[in-house]
């Protein structure tokens, strides 16, 4: 651990482009460094800060605050501060003006320091890779342990491409909304676009999210709960650290946010989150304390993702409130939103015309021109080009349709689901008496109440339990998931089954702790674990149980979308077999009414039906009235009549959905060719043999050996040289694979990619350490002695740490070779072929001679590098100007049709554009490494 003292000068090994930092404050475990050159403040953990001291050396010239200058003759340390002596004066580093120069490759080489030529070559390969990947479309998408599913990457790529994404992810159940959010998070964190993210999820999903983010994306989140941060802490003075600021990635449950005291709320708000992600956002309702608190967080966080079930079919006002939370400009008025929603059908028809190649009649052109505020001549010119028609279609949707806020993929656009098969099991009561039927119908009606307490339940003599007993005995080797409404039912079922059968049965309900629930879920997923898992409705919320193929719906919810959520626990991407949906019910009871209505009117057990929620809302009272019949069993004639009328209503509503909003969302998706291009790039990186060729020697330098195992796996083992901890590496060793398919099949293997923290950490430490920055080599020649200086320069902007700048202008390396006559020697020395490390004796003899040559050779190389960089910088500037101008133009155009978009937002976009362009205008080349090369006969 370093001894930090205010006023000291330090440089960052990981971010040398920041310049030299000055210690502003030290507060226990953290040190605050201010970097004057870049205007940034960084906070580091004192015990593991990647920093090195920056000092002047004898012969250097330094200036104090009073303007007095001295030439350093002697250096000492007093009370942790460096003290410089010279010219009869004494000057401590906290009184310096400016910052001391860092050690440079030129200084190292002139001082006789050199590394192996192989280390220089490795440095160049790392620089080449970093340039190739920085800003690349695949950067940050490679490292996820996920299948390359087109629609998921299409959505993630579009969301992550925005500077300040605020979106609603609303794919139908089982299509991977969680994966999409994880991909976006990983991309933004990996590229440095965000540093601090807060996830707010249902309590039951906290541990699942924690595990998934770590396992799939190597993102280590800190769980905030009452154990780590009490909801009602004792009053503390304002000088006490904000506990939420300690961890950059935080995860908490709904109840923690809802029940937090005002003091904790304020600290959470002051967490300076770059992004807030909310899962199962449809559980938030306007007026609910949870909604209000997340709304406040959303106002402060520039980026936000809401993950929700199929929205908008039912509670339009709640859906609008969530959209407004994301984009208050686009969704500023509810009445206007309703009016726009009513026009989705017409917009979809016009969008489909643009998406096709048929002629658009004059009347439609006139309507389109008014909607897009385009003159006839300009509109006609765009209509005559295929790319122009696509542009018009996206403009139409952006301005008048769903905008840029909502993403929804439907199952009809995604292939690969094995399907699901419904089995309705009609049962008779043992004694066939009306009392049993009335009890079961009353249970069904009770399930429709908001109060989950329900009536006392005893399933000892229930016909459904007798059937379940037989089903378990017939499927002893299967995994069976049973979902019912309440924890009371789960416990009653467990007791009833325990008396009948000896089988491993697990429970999962809201009265259990998070740890108990997750332990039982893991037991169920284990091939040797529980055969049957009894879940309350909490198991319908986001949990994945796709290791099972048998689903028993012991009761049925009075919410069609919740039914789809239940089935979606098994029927989802990754499921390998047909899902068997078992629906036991007793004839003449409410169970029969719901089972037959869902199956015969909706087809909801075997397919996703977006219209089902809308129809259920309108038929709910009718169905309840049919069930609530004290005189006897349910009237089958009335039930058949209700089924027929409901079937017609479903068909009509589904047509409206298919030709309205969902159609617009499908048309506005990322074009298939662009998705295919992204996935092809990821596959190319996955299969790149250069990766293993680079990572093996890189890890070996840090003392980690990479030993092949069977079937494409490797064992990473630290040896006696392993001293610097690397992120993502276990000191005890770890098994990894470079193969995506093997990583998906075996969770015990780490998935080593370009994006893995071990790889990026090893490269960052290598570049930051100065390893390979100087070398001396010799090439056999024709007898004439020659001296070359091979130089690696890197193009950097003044805002190199701004990922939005580096996305346009990555840190591109430039190789320059100059001979001892200051001529361009790149043709004479095109690569490192034939080079061998020069001997120490020869280097020592040459050093006095080349010391006089090197400054001029470096200056000549600098001039060549600067000329080489000019067209690269110009092209990057043009690309940035075009891209950011498009954003400004969109806001200006939208402001003409949406008064909620003000000049302030447009000015902010213009300011962002100008700042990026200014950073590029000031871009320079930095000398990163030198290799002295001799060729021919030297003594």
From TrEMBL:
<dbReference type="InterPro" id="IPR014001">
    <property type="entry name" value="Helicase_ATP-bd"/>
</dbReference>
<dbReference type="Pfam" id="PF18339">
    <property type="entry name" value="Tudor_1_RapA"/>
</dbReference>
<keyword id="KW-0378">Hydrolase</keyword>
<dbReference type="InterPro" id="IPR027417">
    <property type="entry name" value="P-loop_NTPase"/>
</dbReference>
<keyword id="KW-0238">DNA-binding</keyword>
<dbReference type="InterPro" id="IPR000330">
    <property type="entry name" value="SNF2_N"/>
</dbReference>
<dbReference type="Pfam" id="PF00271">
    <property type="entry name" value="Helicase_C"/>
</dbReference>
<keyword id="KW-0010">Activator</keyword>
<keyword id="KW-0547">Nucleotide-binding</keyword>
<feature type="domain" description="Helicase ATP-binding">
    <location>
        <begin position="158"/>
        <end position="329"/>
    </location>
</feature>
<protein>
    <submittedName>
        <fullName>RNA polymerase-associated protein RapA</fullName>
    </submittedName>
</protein>
<dbReference type="InterPro" id="IPR049730">
    <property type="entry name" value="SNF2/RAD54-like_C"/>
</dbReference>
<dbReference type="Pfam" id="PF00176">
    <property type="entry name" value="SNF2-rel_dom"/>
</dbReference>
<dbReference type="GO" id="GO:0003677">
    <property type="term" value="F:DNA binding"/>
</dbReference>
<dbReference type="Pfam" id="PF18337">
    <property type="entry name" value="Tudor_RapA"/>
</dbReference>
<dbReference type="InterPro" id="IPR022737">
    <property type="entry name" value="RapA_C"/>
</dbReference>
<dbReference type="GO" id="GO:0016817">
    <property type="term" value="F:hydrolase activity, acting on acid anhydrides"/>
</dbReference>
<dbReference type="GO" id="GO:0004386">
    <property type="term" value="F:helicase activity"/>
</dbReference>
<dbReference type="InterPro" id="IPR001650">
    <property type="entry name" value="Helicase_C-like"/>
</dbReference>
<dbReference type="InterPro" id="IPR057342">
    <property type="entry name" value="DEXDc_RapA"/>
</dbReference>
<feature type="domain" description="Helicase C-terminal">
    <location>
        <begin position="467"/>
        <end position="627"/>
    </location>
</feature>
<dbReference type="InterPro" id="IPR038718">
    <property type="entry name" value="SNF2-like_sf"/>
</dbReference>
<dbReference type="GO" id="GO:0005524">
    <property type="term" value="F:ATP binding"/>
</dbReference>
<keyword id="KW-0067">ATP-binding</keyword>
<dbReference type="InterPro" id="IPR040765">
    <property type="entry name" value="Tudor_1_RapA"/>
</dbReference>
<keyword id="KW-0804">Transcription</keyword>
<dbReference type="Pfam" id="PF12137">
    <property type="entry name" value="RapA_C"/>
</dbReference>
<keyword id="KW-0347">Helicase</keyword>
<keyword id="KW-0805">Transcription regulation</keyword>
<dbReference type="InterPro" id="IPR040766">
    <property type="entry name" value="Tudor_2_RapA"/>
</dbReference>
């Amino acid at each position: 651990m370093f001894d930090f003292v205010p006023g000291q000068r330090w440089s960052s090994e990981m971010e040398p482009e920041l310049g030299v930092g000055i210690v502003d404050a030290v507060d226990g475990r953290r040190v605050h460094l201010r970097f004057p050159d870049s205007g940034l403040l960084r906070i580091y953990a004192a015990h593991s800060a990647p920093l090195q001291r920056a000092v002047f050396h004898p012969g250097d010239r330094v200036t104090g605050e009073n303007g007095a200058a001295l030439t350093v003759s002697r250096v000492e340390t007093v009370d942790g501060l460096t003290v410089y002596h010279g010219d009869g004066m004494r000057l401590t580093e906290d009184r310096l003006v400016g910052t001391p120069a860092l050690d440079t490759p030129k200084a190292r080489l002139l001082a006789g320091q050199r590394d192996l030529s192989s280390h220089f070559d490795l440095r160049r390969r790392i620089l080449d890779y970093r340039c190739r990947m920085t800003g690349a479309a695949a950067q940050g998408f490679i490292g996820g342990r996920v299948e390359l599913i087109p629609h998921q990457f299409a959505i993630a790529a579009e969301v992550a491409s925005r500077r300040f994404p605020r979106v609603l992810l609303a794919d139908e159940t089982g299509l991977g909304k969680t994966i999409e959010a994880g991909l976006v998070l990983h991309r933004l964190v990996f590229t440095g676009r965000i540093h601090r993210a807060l996830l707010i999820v249902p309590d039951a999903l906290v541990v699942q999210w924690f595990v998934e983010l770590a396992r799939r994306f190597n993102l280590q989140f800190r769980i905030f709960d009452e154990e780590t941060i009490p909801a009602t802490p004792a009053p503390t003075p304002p000088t006490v650290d904000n506990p939420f600021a300690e961890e950059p990635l935080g995860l908490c449950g709904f109840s923690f946010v809802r029940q937090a005291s005002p003091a904790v709320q304020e600290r959470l708000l002051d967490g300076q989150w770059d992004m807030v992600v909310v899962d199962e956002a449809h559980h938030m309702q306007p007026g609910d304390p949870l909604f209000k608190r997340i709304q406040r967080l959303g106002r402060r966080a520039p980026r936000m993702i809401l993950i929700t079930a199929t929205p908008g079919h039912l509670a339009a006002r709640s859906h609008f409130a969530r959209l407004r939370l994301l984009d208050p400009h686009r969704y500023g008025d509810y009445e206007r939103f309703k009016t726009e929603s009513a026009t989705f059908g017409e917009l979809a028809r016009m969008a489909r015309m643009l998406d096709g190649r048929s002629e658009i009649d004059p009347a439609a052109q006139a309507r389109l021109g008014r909607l897009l505020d385009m003159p006839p001549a300009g509109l006609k010119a765009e209509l005559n080009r295929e790319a122009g028609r696509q542009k018009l279609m996206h403009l139409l949707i952006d301005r008048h349709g769903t905008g840029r806020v909502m993403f929804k993929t439907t199952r009809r656009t995604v292939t690969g689901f094995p399907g699901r098969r419904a089995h309705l099991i009609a049962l008779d009561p043992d004694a066939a008496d009306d009392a049993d039927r009335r009890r079961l119908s009353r249970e069904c009606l009770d399930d429709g109440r908001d109060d989950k307490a329900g009536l006392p339940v005893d399933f000892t003599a229930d016909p459904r339990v007798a059937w379940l007993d037989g089903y378990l005995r017939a499927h002893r080797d299967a995994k069976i998931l049973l979902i019912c409404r309440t924890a009371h039912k789960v416990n009653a079922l467990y007791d009833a089954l325990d008396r009948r059968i000896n089988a491993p049965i697990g429970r999962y309900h809201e009265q259990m702790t998070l740890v108990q629930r997750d332990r039982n879920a893991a037991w169920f997923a284990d091939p040797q674990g529980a055969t049957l898992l009894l879940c309350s409705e909490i198991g319908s919320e986001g949990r994945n149980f796709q290791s099972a193929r048998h689903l028993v719906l012991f009761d049925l919810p009075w919410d069609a979308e919740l039914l789809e959520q239940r089935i979606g626990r098994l029927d989802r991407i990754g499921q390998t077999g047909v899902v068997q949906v078992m629906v036991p019910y007793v004839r003449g009871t409410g169970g029969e009414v719901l089972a037959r209505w869902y199956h015969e009117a909706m087809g909801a057990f075997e397919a996703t039906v977006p219209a089902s929620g809308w129809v259920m809302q309108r038929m709910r009272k009718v169905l309840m009235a049919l069930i609530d019949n004290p005189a006897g069993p349910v009237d089958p004639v009335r039930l058949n009549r209700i089924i027929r009328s409901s079937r017609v209503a479903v068909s009509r509503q589904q047509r409206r959905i298919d030709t309205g909003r969902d159609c617009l969302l499908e048309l506005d998706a990322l074009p298939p060719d662009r998705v295919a291009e992204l996935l092809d790039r990821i596959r190319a990186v996955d299969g790149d043999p250069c990766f293993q060729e680079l990572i093996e020697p890189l890890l070996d330098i840090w003392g980690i050996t990479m030993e092949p195992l069977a079937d494409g796996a490797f064992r990473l083992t630290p040896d006696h040289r392993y001293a610097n901890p690397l992120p993502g590496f276990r000191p005890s060793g770890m098994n990894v694979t470079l193969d995506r398919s093997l990583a998906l099949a075996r969770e015990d293997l780490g998935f080593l990619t370009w994006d893995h923290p071990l790889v990026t950490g090893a490269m960052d430490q290598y570049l930051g350490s100065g390893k390979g920055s100087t070398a001396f080599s010799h090439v056999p020649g024709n007898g004439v002695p020659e001296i070359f200086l091979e130089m690696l320069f890197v193009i950097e902007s003044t805002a190199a740490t701004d990922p939005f700048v580096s996305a346009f202008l990555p840190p591109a390396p430039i190789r320059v070779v100059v001979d001892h006559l200051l001529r361009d020697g790149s043709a004479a020395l095109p690569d490192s072929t034939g080079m061998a490390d020069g001997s120490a004796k020869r280097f020592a003899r040459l050093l006095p001679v080349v010391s006089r040559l090197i400054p001029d050779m470096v200056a000549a190389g600098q001039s060549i590098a600067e000329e080489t960089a000019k067209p690269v910088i110009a092209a990057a500037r043009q690309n940035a100007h075009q891209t950011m101008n498009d954003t400004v133009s969109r806001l200006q155009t939208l402001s003409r049709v949406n008064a909620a978009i003000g000049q302030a937002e447009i000015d902010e976009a213009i300011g962002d554009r100008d700042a990026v362009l200014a950073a590029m205008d000031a871009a320079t080349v930095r000398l990163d490494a030198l290799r002295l090369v001799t060729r021919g006969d030297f003594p």
